[in-house]
Structure formats: structure tokens, C-alpha cells
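A common beginner's mistake is to predict each chain separately and then try to dock the pieces by hand. The better habit, illustrated here, is to supply every component at once so that their relative placement is modeled jointly.
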Amino acid sequence: MKRLFLHPAAVLLAALLAWQIVALVKTTPLFPGPLDVAGALWDDGPRLIREIGHTLRRAVAGFALAALTMIPLGLAMGRIRALGFVGEPLVAMLATLPPPATVPVVMLFAGTGDLAKILVIAYAAAIPLVINAAEAARNLHPMLGLVGRSLGLTRLETLRLIALPSALPMLAVAARMAASAALLVSITSEMLLSTNGIGNYLQREQENFRLDAGLAGIVLISVVGLILNRLIAASERRWLGWHYQSRTAETQA
Amino acid sequence: MTALLEAGGLAKVFPGRPDPVEILRDISFAVAPEEFVSIVGPSGCGKTTLLMCLAGLLPPSSGWVRFRGQPVTDPPRGVSVVFQDYSRSLLPWKSARENVTLGMRRLGLGRAAARDRAEALLAEVGLAGFEGHFPWQLSGGMQQRVAIARALAAESALLLLDEPLAAVDAQTRADLQDLLRGLARKFRQACLLVTHDVDEAVYMADRVLVLSRRPTRILREVPLALGAERDQIDTRERPDYLAARHEILTLIRAARPEGAGA
Amino acid sequence: MTALLRPVLALGLLAALWQAVVWAAVVPERYFPPIATVVQAGMSMIARGQMQQALFDTGSRAILGAIAVNLIGIGLGLAATGAPSLRRILDTVAAILQPVPPAAVVPMAVFALGLGWKLYAFVVVLVTIWPPYLATVSALAATNPVLLSVGRMAGFGPVAMLWHIRLPAAMPEILAGVRYATTIALIAVIVSEMITGRDGIGFLLFQKAFAIRIPEVFALMFAVGLLGSAMGLAVSAVYRGFAGWHLAQRGRAA
Amino acid sequence: MSTLKLTRRRLGASVTAAVLAAILALPAQAEELKKVRFAYLLSDTLLSVFRAKDQGYFAAAGLDVDLIPVQGGPAVIAALASGEADIGYAAPVPPLNARAQGVPVKLFLTLGHEADPDRKYVWLVASKASGVSSLADVKGKKIAINGNGTGCELAWRDHLAAAGLSYDDAEVVVLPFPQQEAALEQGTIDVGCAIQPFYASISANPEIGAKVIARGLLADEKEPVISDSVIGTDAWLSENEDTAKAFAHAVVKARDELLANRALVEEAAVTYLDLTPELAKTLDYSVLKPEVDVKPGEVQRILDALVKAGILKTPLKAADVSIDLKL
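With all components supplied together, the output reads:
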């Protein structure tokens, strides 16, 4: 009984019910209830799907750009002392700059089109990737480095064959953070300068005081984020099975 | 003489995919007070699992374990374990002294008394002067000495030793073997030593249990009468030592998974 | 000493990179001014007392917010570890809220919460609470099983186990979450100030942009970087206090 | 011993009295000045409000005006709707839009009117490089607005419609005012929507070679059109009409002083808006109409334009969305 009562779905349902009741009492368009939101979701459905397509396309592009450049850079920072010495505080400093604040600067170089947004997204995704890649490379067990040397691997081969795979679990964590950052910033950048995308939709509906539609957009973002998260978790299980299995094996031993 | 530790019909099956994995099957034996028993078996035969069941750290699938006549469900007072993976069994955020004090929690000593006792024990295992060091500042052999001191700290009647010397060099290993035996005798403790090293099993023990391969059973019990005092050179040359060693090695070779040479 | 040297070095490098971009003349200097002009703008803001005041306002909000939210996040993580049903609920809430950008929620939050400290607190909590919470939950769940066995042999109950074994072992990972959260707490405060602030760096960024004082906007951005670095150093000090063993252990291993 | 006790008791009594006096004094002071929370977005037309506060004109009128800066017109409405502010300042479009969506706010003052030919607050400016020289050339070009549901959107829609084009013929980019100049210079956008002080800055930029293709909120401004608005919630306005009037009088007083003395305007722009003295020189601080109360006819013109532009879906009546204070 208690179990059922505390089930997340039950809690969620209760929250929705409470929300609907408050909305019914308040009777102002500034406090739409779940039914209003569902209505807006239904009305704007096709448009929302189209808009989120733009958002995802740019998020994926920005994420890919960041992953391709920042993982090697981070690993190098972790392995090459001098590079880490200067690189790390630089990254730490850049990390405190909110991605939205970089928009005006990026705009100067890349305009207001897709490229600008993708660059801002890549910047946001880059931070966790480069930090974790450096950390993972530094935490590489000294034994593994020695193994590489004893096998006569070059520095690059050690990086590729030993450092990269052993850094994977930590990179997976970073990828998860970077992916949600990419989605987040993709939407934010659309709110700041865009002609399409779910962020633009949100901005427009909120500025026109259609709060139910705004919330519908947020619900959609939530769902997409959730699906993305599950997809990443599933691929982690698929590709990093060895890591989790060795963990469970330890627990059983 | 009443047994200190008794196991009856002990079995352990892990739920696995696709099929459950049967590790232990019907293991029964007893350890008397102050007795030193070694357990050897082919690699991967579930020695560690057996020890965890005996220590109350892992519930058996069936069968029972009794310590001083009481059923073991949780780690009982009076039993200490020296874990195989010493580098990970020490708390890295605590000094050697604090790690040893951890073993005394059940004794209810005051802070100062616990501290004194921990330092005495560390001196006993040859670590005087290293009390304030952190585990990662010590060599492998020294870390294992800290772990041994921690197990001794509980003043237990029974010490469960899980391949405690597997990862130290030969000289350290010989030293620690003598140290362990000496301390066990000094503190009148019973010991159950799990090892894959037949020489070590015979050299240390009053009795050796030889395990089969998985699902593990006890193949044979080999009693020894090598005397209370052991010597790394003399004991290892005694005919009864060599005979026991030969018998056990033969059994284990036959029990190897490949069955090579059988 | 090196702890201070490194950010300074990084700042120098950043300035050099900046100046290189200026010299490359990709963008008119008017919009991307030389580093000397930015420094000058920053100095003049210091002379007018604007910079210090803004740094103090934003910094105190961010630090206070970061401390509060990290404590709440770790507390929730501990509670969720103790009560699996709470954890399921919190994880669901986290999964729902995490993908939503604060910028999307803030306009609506203003309707519900107004413009005062409640809005600030809401934005900071919304974006900052999950890293320490998730780090705490995952780190506590992943304690090395050997250490757990050691604790059980020492006769630890659940509370003692948490206090003596699981929490210390989890500290490095928790503090990594804290570090991340502290950075984004600063970002959250600045974003809130940009939307509805009457003081602080966020407001000043907005005001300076309106007054077309571009070098001062960039000087403020550099100031944000410095403030963030300072907060990072503070977290590092906390890290050394609570998980210094981990750093030392790693230092030896590396 | 007893003297000590006595002293202590006396001390306690006097402290209690002091605390009580302080507590009693607090509401007394609050009663003296009526608290008015004013949410605004930065604009040069607000110099009068800043000055009225600084010079103590509000206090003299019995008001304690709290100035709350907010980013964007919709945020001003949000501040009012949430009860966080009593009155607010924005372009007329956001409050009217909000009213249409059921948010109970009304216009009750305006600080600026536009009219043909010269008095304008909004400019649509093309860069030379874009090749755009008239509204007709905008088709397929990138045009900027500072936000949805703003004066800029109305201006674009109305001017394009007057030129026989539709809003969708151009590619609309949302870009805050401060970013538009660089975007024009670099060719990121073809035509911007500017207000002061950005318009002055853009006009003075030789790299852009600015070409004004349209001016004013509406294409037809033979009759004066309100270009901004001071708004309040229905609830606040129904109970505080006198306060609203007192506020208006204080603002007018400050504004008259500014209008009479150019040096004062530039000084205020530097002080309150943080403009550089050079930029402050470019400021045009003149008014078309000395009155600040809103007339139904003026509001109706905007309302009709909003419906025509498609921003408002249903027609609204001026009487429902504004109050004429008849100052």
C-alpha cells in the first residue's frame, strides 16, 4: 500500500491533480492547468514537432563538433603536463562564462544563422567534455601507462589504445552532461537569436502571453530530454558493458 | 572439544544469465579453538565466496554456519577478516593508526586506550614509526601488515584470512607467514587461511581442507602434525610435510578444470 | 603559490588570444576592442566603484546560493539513499526538470514568483541542485564493496557505515558535483540578474550594452571569469579539507 | 546591590521604550509616503522619471517610488501580474497583447507620442551593403526585431503591409537592440529596427551607410500615436487613481525641466543611462504633446493597427484597455 502510494507515477499524478485544482481556482490565463497545457500540446502538435526537429539538429551538430575536438584536447591536457598546466585554469575560467553571454561575441564572428548557434552549443558541450577527459587521462592508472611503454607503443598509440578506452566510463558521464547541455543551450540560443526551433516557439508564445503553449513547449522539451537520456544510458550499457560488469562482479565477490 | 566455527551443508548459487551459477555445493566442516586450518583449491573454485559466507558477509543459499554455537547471519563479534585486496580494504582517508582503531570499535575502548593499543599492535607487526602514514604512503607488504594489525585489534577468537599474502614478494611473504602464525599463537586465536599456494597452506596449518573445482565441495581433509614451532627451512624439508604437499598437489591437479595430467 | 599563478597565467593566455583575434581584424575593433581598451574600461569601472560593487553583489549571491544549494543537494542525496521511494521520486523529478533550460522557465516563473529574491532562489535551485544530488546518490551507491565488508566486520550500523565509510569514500565524487554546481550557480545568478536585476554583474552587462559601452561589457565578462576562478579556488580549498587524501593519493599515483 | 538592580531595571525600561518607539515610528513613516513599485525597461524617455525620483518630486507628492529595472516589455507585464510591481513602463504593444490574453492591465500614462513628419521613436534602418533602399526591397531579406510582440514587430508588420508586402516575405531574426549595429555592419542582417540611442549610433557609423526605409511605429501617423505606456493592474488603478495622478504630475514636472534645459538632459542621460557624454549629445529629447494622459482615440489607433497586423486576433476597445486620467 505504502509502496503504491509513493510510486513516482502516483506522486506525479497527485501533483498534476493539485496543479489542475489550483488552476481551476485561480481562473487566470497566467496560471494554466494541465488540461490547458494538454490542449495547447494537441493544437500546436505538428508545429512543435517541426520546431523541435530544428532544435535537435543543431544540438547534435554542436555536440558532435565539441566531442570531436574536445575529447582529444582533454586527453592531451591530462597526459601532457605543460598543456594541462595552462589549459586547465583557462578552461576553468571559460567554464564560468554563461553560454548565453557568449552569444553576442559569437555572433560577431558567425552571424545569426545556424553556424552561430552550433558554435554556442559546442562551447557549452565542450566544457564538461574537456574537463572530464583531462581528469580521466590524469587518473589513468600508472600501471596502464607502463603497459603501454613496455609494449613499445608510441605516445599517440598509448593515447588511442590505452588512455582513450580506460577513460571511456568517465567520458560517458561527461557525454551525458554535454548532451543535456547541448539540448539546453540549443533551446536557449534559439530564444536569443532565431527564426525557428522550440526555443523560438517558447519565446514567441511567452512574449505573447500564451502561457499554456509555453508550458506545452516545456513539456515537450522534458520528454525529448528524457528520451535522449534513456538513449544515452542504453548505449552506455551497450558499449561500456565491461565497466559495469566488472563493477557488479566486484560486488558479488 | 566443542567447535568454534561450524558449517553444515553450505551451498551458494548466484543468479546469473542465462543460467544460475552454482559456486558452493554442500560444504561441511568445523574449526576448533586455537586451531589453524588452511583451505586450498584450484583457482576460481569459490574460496573467497566460502570465506564471505563464513564471515556472515554473504548469506548462503542453503546450509548453515555457527560460531560459538550461534547461527551466523551477520558478522559475529569475535571474528575478524583479513581481506585479499589489502590496497582497497584500508580506508585511504585514514592513517594506519586510525585504520587499526577501526578494528576495535566493538571493544568499547576509550579514545586514548584505543590509540595506545593500535600503536602497540602496529609495533607488533613491525610498523613502529609509521602510525601516522596513510595507506597509499606505504608499500604493499606494509599495507598488508596494517590490515593484519586491524584484524588482530578486535581480539577475535577466529581470524579469517583471504589469501592475505597473495600479492607480496617472496621474502615479505615468508616473514608475514611467521608473523601471522606467531601472533595467532600469542593471542590464542583460531585461523582459517584461504590460499591457492599449497606450500603456504601446509606450512601454516594444523589441518588442510582441499576443495574441488566448481561447484565446490571438500575433496579431502589432510591432517598435519608438523609441531607447534615451524621454521621456513627445516619444516619445509620434513618428510611428512613433503608427503602432505604431494598428496594435495596431486588432488588439485586432478581437480583442475582442464583435467590436464589426470 | 601555483594555485594563484595558474589562473593568472590562464588570464594572460586568454588576453593574448584575444589580442591575436583583434590583430587578425576579422571583426571591426569597435565591436571587438583591443585588450588594452578592455583593461582600460575595467579600470575606469573600478575607479567609479562600479566593478567592485557588482562583483560584491553577484559574488555574495552566488556564494550564498552555491553553499545553500550544495548543502540541500547533498542532503537530498543522503535522504534519497536512505529512502529508495524518495529516490525514485527525486530521480523522476530530476529527469523531468533537467532538460528544461532556465531561460525557458524564467518568464513564467516571474508570473508566479515575482522579481525578488524568490525568483533568484528558484533559478539557482532549479539549475544547480542536480549535480550535487546526483553525485551524492551515485557515489554513495558505488562504495567499494571491500570497504563495506570492512565496515560490517567492525560492527558498523547503517548510520556509522554512512558516516565512517560511505560518505568519506564518496567525497571526491560529491565534491566534483559541488564544483560543477558552484560554477553554474554563478551563471544562474548572472542570468537572473540579466532578466530582472537592479544591480550585480548581470544587470550591469545589460545596462552597459544599452549604453553601447562595448569595452565595458567585455571587461565585465573578464570579471565574471575571474570571479568564477576565485570560486573555483574556494571549492578546491574545501576539496583539500574533505578529500585531501584523494588528491594526495592521486598525486602519488600520477 | 539594590541600586544595581534598580539601574538594570531602569536600563531595561529605557531600552524597551526605545525599541517600541522605533517600531511605532516605522509604520508612521510608511504612512507618510505611499509606496509605488515601478517596473521599467531602459529607455531614454524615462529620464523624467529618474529625475523626479532623484530631485525628490515623488517624495514631495507623497510617493516612495521604487524603480525596478526589467528586461523586456513582457517581463514588465509579468512583474505587474505577479504583484511584484504596482505600475510599469513598456511599449504599448506588450500590455495590449497581454490584455487580449486576459491579463488585467491598463494603460494610464504615455511619455511620448509619435507623429508625422519628424517626431519618431522607431526607425527601420538598412545597411548600404544590403542594397535595400525601400520597404519594397525587403522581400527575402533578413530583418531584425528585438523581440516578439514588441513595438518593432508592430512597426515591421504595419509598414510592410502599407508597402504591399507581408511580414512573412522577409526573414525575421530576433536580435536585441545592442547587437543590431554590429549585425548590420557585418551583413548578418539587412535591415534593423532601432530605437535611441542605438539609432544615433547606427546613423553615425560610416561603415554601415545607414538608409532609413521607414520611421515610426505605424506607417500612417498623420494623427499622433502613443509610442510608450505606463501601465497598472485594474485592481491597483481602481484604488489608486490619485496616486497615479500624483505620479504623473511629478514626472511632468521633471520632464518640463529637462525640456527647458538641454544640458540637464545630457547630464541625466550620463547619470541614469550610463551613456557616454558623446552619445548623450545625440539624444533627441523633445515631446510632441505636453500631456501625458492617454486619450481613447490614440489607444484605439494602436489597437486597430495591432488587429490589422494580425498581432491581436480579436478587436479590443480603448475604453477597456486604458484609463484617461484627464490631468
